[in-house]
Structures are given as C-alpha cells and as structure tokens.
Amino acid sequence: MADKFAWITEEMNALEGQGLRTTIRTIGSACGPWMVVDGKRVLNFCTNNYLGLANHPRLKQAAQEAVEQWGVGPAAVRSIAGTLELHRQLEQRLAAFKGVEDALYVQSGFCANQAAIPPMVGKGDVIFTDRLNHASIIDGCRLSSAKILVYEHCDLADCERVITENIGQYRRALLITDGVFSMDGDMAPLDQLFELCERHGIITMVDDAHGEGVLGHGGRGIVDHFQLNGKFDLEIGTLSKAFGVMGGVIAGKKVVIDWIRQKARPFLFSSAVTAADTAACLAAVDLLEESTALVQKLWDNTRYFKEGMRQAGFDIGASVTPITPVMLGEATVAQEFSRRLFAAEPGIFAMPIGFPTVPQGKARIRVMISAAHTQDDLETGLKTFTSIGRELGVIG
C-alpha cells in the first residue's frame, strides 16, 4: 500500500533544502534578557518582551493572588458564565488607558482580529488592507466573506487609488492596517490613512500589537503617537508583548464594541481568559500608568543597539521601532547566522525569519530589544553579531 503521507516527507525535505524548515527550540526558564534555551544559557534577542514584564514580580504576585481567589479557570465562555469581575475591570482600565469608550478582552491578539473583522463587514462589503498586514488580519478578512482589496505597503497614493476605483461598488468599507509591522519595524502613516478614510466614509481599524507599551505617551500606542485618540473606530491590541502576559483587546467606540460582543465568534464560543492572566494584565496597566521609565529605557536601548549595528555595517532596513531586522537575503544564510549566534560563547538566541513570513530573498534575523537588557548585554550582542557577520561575509 502506498504511503498516503509521502507528500509530507517530500515537502519537508524541500523546506529543508531551501533553508525554510522551522526549528522549534525549547525554553527552560522564565522569559528575560537571559534565558535557558535547549539547555543552554543564552542572551535573549528573540522574544516580544519589550518592557521586561513577562517575569516581573508584581505581575507574578497579582497572578498568584488571583488563583487563590478565583481558581485556575472560569470554566465557561464569557457570554454564558465566564465573565469575571476582573475581566470587566481590565476592559475598563484598557479603555481609559487608550482614551476610548470601551474595550473587549479576548483570548489573544490573533483571536482579536478574527473576532473584530467579520461582525463589521460581510458579503457585499469591501476591505482595504495593507499588503504586509499580519496573518491574523488576513485570516480575519477571509472569514468575513467581504471583498479583499490590497494596497501596496504603507503607500498612501496606492491606497487612495484602490479606494477611489472601488468605493462606490460596495455596501460598507473597512480599512485595516498594522500600526507597527512586525517583520520590518516600520509604522503605518496612520494620520494620513485616517484623513483618507474620513473623506470616503470608511470604517477604520488598526492592529497595534507592536505599538502598545512602545509608542505614544507611556506606551499608549500608535493612535496616541499620532494624537488620534478616540478617532479610530477599532484598535486591536495584544497583552502578550509589551504587557508581558496573554490575551487580546478590541477597543473603540461603545456602539461598535457592544456589537462585537454580540457577534464575535472567538468571544462567544471559546472559554474565557483565566483570572491569573487577567490580574497580571491589570498589574501591567498599573505599572505603565505609574511611570514612563520602562518605555524610556526601551527606547534608549533601541537607539544604542541600532546605532552600533549601523556602524558595524549591517543593513537594518526601514525600522523606526525597537524591532531590528538584520537583513541577510537568503534563508540559508539567515539560518546559518542564527545557528552560529546560538553556538557562540555566550550564545545569542535570535531566530531566522524566512519565506513565507517575509518575501523570498528578504530573509533576516529579527532582533527584539527589551527594556530589560543592560548596556553590557547590548555590547555582547553587538560584538557577537559583528564577529559572525564578518565570518559569513555579510559585512566587511
């Protein structure tokens, strides 16, 4: 009998040959500037722990106290018997933090996009979406059954062209963009997109996953950065990056959030986020409201590391945020660079990114800077990157 899964082996071998097979490493310690990965202590340049909160004592204490009071799981979906007082407290705090009328807390940032898009548009409607938007946005758009029209990345002129050529042919229109693009670290021209949408009566939505805790006053995000607080119809966020915990948030006008509560399938059909996660998120909001020091340290570290990489001769793309793509071109080069970083002493944990996450020929090492890194950590990283870059002929 023929092997009905022989095609998988063939495809996996092809990925291996192209340098595109993902190697999943195993973490053996809490998330921090130094971690145990596959049994080795390494400098962490890989996680999204922008502010160093993933192992913060106040967040851990809040989670532990919540377990004692609320138990380990709500045992229900939010719409039946799973909405805790903690969930509503967090939603109110996040809405106030972002300067919007209301917010809805869901299981993840990925779920947030899948929850928010289908209730807003459907068959007979149109979505205008940036070519480099995150996979969760792409999947949410597909689930909506609306017509999907792509404009070139951060290209306002092309966006306006696509809108003007199509706007009158559909019932409703929604424009969606990432705020900070996770692979390149560049920002959408949010103010100009907003003005364009206002002229055409288009619903606006921004995914601020990599802007929350990073951009704006005290980490209030890209909408605050552009001083558009309360004007964007929908802001999508995650509590798993700068906030250091887990969960997603859909924030905006109350009428819109109320509608999404009625219609969002991840909210209606998937169990509620645990009390421990929710309490830890509340503690993170407390920290961000109390002080801007962590956000400032993140940006100080970002400027220091980026300047060192530029002086060494690396191409770090168009990033204007702590996301630092080290552009290497071919996936095989990126994989070898990552392996050598890990094997160095001390080792550096920085994973290669290749197709289909980024276009063919645009493979890279994506360095994620954190407020938890010390200057010595950054110096260690710069020294090791420079040494390996010279060994591989990436820099002179």
TrEMBL record:
<dbReference type="GO" id="GO:0016874">
    <property type="term" value="F:ligase activity"/>
</dbReference>
<dbReference type="GO" id="GO:0030170">
    <property type="term" value="F:pyridoxal phosphate binding"/>
</dbReference>
<comment type="subunit">
    <text>Homodimer.</text>
</comment>
<dbReference type="GO" id="GO:0008890">
    <property type="term" value="F:glycine C-acetyltransferase activity"/>
</dbReference>
<dbReference type="InterPro" id="IPR004839">
    <property type="entry name" value="Aminotransferase_I/II_large"/>
</dbReference>
<dbReference type="InterPro" id="IPR010962">
    <property type="entry name" value="AONS_Archaea/Firmicutes"/>
</dbReference>
<keyword id="KW-0012">Acyltransferase</keyword>
<dbReference type="Pfam" id="PF00155">
    <property type="entry name" value="Aminotran_1_2"/>
</dbReference>
<comment type="similarity">
    <text>Belongs to the class-II pyridoxal-phosphate-dependent aminotransferase family.</text>
</comment>
<protein>
    <submittedName>
        <fullName>2-amino-3-ketobutyrate CoA ligase</fullName>
        <ecNumber>2.3.1.29</ecNumber>
    </submittedName>
</protein>
<dbReference type="InterPro" id="IPR001917">
    <property type="entry name" value="Aminotrans_II_pyridoxalP_BS"/>
</dbReference>
<dbReference type="InterPro" id="IPR050087">
    <property type="entry name" value="AON_synthase_class-II"/>
</dbReference>
<feature type="domain" description="Aminotransferase class I/classII large">
    <location>
        <begin position="41"/>
        <end position="383"/>
    </location>
</feature>
<keyword id="KW-0663">Pyridoxal phosphate</keyword>
<dbReference type="InterPro" id="IPR015422">
    <property type="entry name" value="PyrdxlP-dep_Trfase_small"/>
</dbReference>
<keyword id="KW-0808">Transferase</keyword>
<keyword id="KW-0436">Ligase</keyword>
<dbReference type="InterPro" id="IPR015421">
    <property type="entry name" value="PyrdxlP-dep_Trfase_major"/>
</dbReference>
<dbReference type="InterPro" id="IPR015424">
    <property type="entry name" value="PyrdxlP-dep_Trfase"/>
</dbReference>
